[in-house]
Amino acid sequence: MLLLWSVALARDATDNWIARTEIPVLIHATASEVRDRDGHLLRAYTVEDGLWRMALSLDQVDPLFLDMLVAYEDKRFFDHAGVDTIATARAAWQGLRAGRIVSGASTLTMQVARLLEDGSTGAWRGKLRQVRLALALERRLSKAQILQLYLELASYGGNVEGLRAASLAWLGKEPARLIPAEAALLVALPQAPESRRPDRHPEAARAARDRVLARMAGAGVIDAETARVSLRDPAPQGRRAFPLLAPHLADRAVAQGPGRHDLTLDRGLQRRLEALARTYMAGRDGRLSMALIVADHQSGEVLASIGSPDYSAGEGQGFVDMTQALRSPGSTLKPLVYGLAFDRGLAHPETLISDTPVQFGSYAPQNFDGRFRGELRVSRALQLSLNIPVVRLTEAMGSAHLMAALETAGLHPELPKGGAPGLAVSLGGVGLSLWDMVTLYAGLANGGEVRALRWRAEESEAEGARLMSPRAAWQVGHILAGLAPPPQAGPRGRVAYKTGTSYGHRDAWALGFDGRYVAGVWIGRPDGTPVPGAFGGDLAAPLLFEALGRARAEPVPLPAPPPDTLLVGNAALPPHLQRFGDVGAKRPGLRLTFPPEGARLAADPRGVPVKLRGGVPPYTLLADGEVVATRLRGEALLAPVSGPGFTTLSVIDAAGQAGRVSIELR
């Protein structure tokens, strides 16, 4: 009776001792992770002290690894209550006989206890504490929870903690599918994580792996033939880099809070385009950066986003996300102006418009090349990216309406401090980001309905805003699709695209779309310094076509015209659309620049060359008050006067302005 009472008392005391055990914190910080649309890891971030520790559940682990781990470390794990009495007795007996520790008796639960407290396994006091904590853990947690703690906290060398981080660091893969040699290595490393690190002690790591394989064959976890073949598998010789895809967009996601972030990106496309960007920018000025976005314009989902070709702090300032930087968009805003003009009935693609000198108040726009092309079709003016015609259209509808359209599209245009929107907005006189511009072109591609780009998987599809009619959007796309692709592009199918170069060659742009995908490219220097000789057509357009080519297995055709699209030539247009009227423009006065007043010229049977500047074509030419030629265009005319004698030459333009000069032919 006394014996039973003593046993009961000891049992109660032990229960109380275990019950009073203070359990350390069981939840540990794990890496914030950014994943793609299919759950693939794009980027992970270290936790405190720069440790790689990543969240992991048992269903994400290859069952073979779990079988090996239990068989090698604690074969009675599922049967004991935290302490393996059989193993403890065996270790004690062997130690007494040998006078030293021959084998250990530490269970997986005891190892978890040590990991939770970062305690030593050698001192008896530490061992006793592990026993007590192990018994307490078994009472409060399930076996699966204890096993998961081990998989999250076990050290695998250096700053690598936990199975998932170890699998990525040493094998370059997730632990969901492991071959026997890989599983054996990951079982062996935690026993001596520093002396078996594959990057510093590859032979020791391989030897430890091979011992695990041999024991697993003896325990029947794998067969002898599998073990023999696995011994020939190469062991890792170094450490793999953790995934670092879409680093800028990942930073944006994590800035909103720690944890797991699922994006709309496609990991395969992102990887291909990052490689393309590095290759494309290799060998160029190291101060240059670039940015690239590819999206599905039907859903608004961003499929790839590159903020710089090299995520580093070099002279190209690779840490700066240039998809978000405000830059001058150059000529890439012109399609919006034309689309709005089509929608407002100001013009049609076949409308004739003047590319001649013009002045609006103190503002006299010039074309990029300084030339004038007279009267031409609106569609051709857009394809040639002429400045004067688009400014005429902007003046007719008002630059404030253009700014309102940008805001309707959900963009964030920024004018110079204290500035008001002027006519130069249509030529890029406003700050917009590549993200803004891709949003705009996605709206053009999507029939004139623009919606915010989506890059977080949990975001629902945004409400669309009508920017212009489907008819006007199709007309713009049809015009842009008529541009010849860059010579380096190769056969990529029809792409509606526009290039742009900002003032001073600071920014080179290319934006375009097909029937499903939209893409945008920006190249320049992050600090805004000019890049002499940089043009959007030469520098950015080839990369745009390469990016679209990698986004699709086959070209996606552009849509057919909407039913209400007016597909006629200029002569069949309504009278008010045949020729664009000049609203509010004040032209420079008509002036004859040759011959000069009072000039004496040798008579020529072909006539007298006349040069003029300003005015409104067509021109009428008179000699001594009589009409000698009509409906003349251009700035160089020929007066059919052969002389000899004194002659007065006059030119009258379409606005009634006149220029006159008197000469002598000899």
Automatic annotation (TrEMBL):
A GO molecular function held by the record: penicillin binding
Keyword line: Carboxypeptidase, Glycosyltransferase, Hydrolase, Multifunctional enzyme, Protease, Transferase
Coiled coil: none
Pfam families: BiPBP_C, Transgly, Transpeptidase
Biological process according to GO: peptidoglycan biosynthetic process; proteolysis
Domain Penicillin-binding protein transpeptidase: 291-502
Reactions that this protein is recorded to catalyse: [GlcNAc-(1->4)-Mur2Ac(oyl-L-Ala-gamma-D-Glu-L-Lys-D-Ala-D-Ala)](n)-di-trans,octa-cis-undecaprenyl diphosphate + beta-D-GlcNAc-(1->4)-Mur2Ac(oyl-L-Ala-gamma-D-Glu-L-Lys-D-Ala-D-Ala)-di-trans,octa-cis-undecaprenyl diphosphate = [GlcNAc-(1->4)-Mur2Ac(oyl-L-Ala-gamma-D-Glu-L-Lys-D-Ala-D-Ala)](n+1)-di-trans,octa-cis-undecaprenyl diphosphate + di-trans,octa-cis-undecaprenyl diphosphate + H(+)
Domain Glycosyl transferase family: 49-216
Catalytic activity, EC: 2.4.99.28
Protein name stated in the entry: peptidoglycan glycosyltransferase
Species of the source: Salipiger abyssi
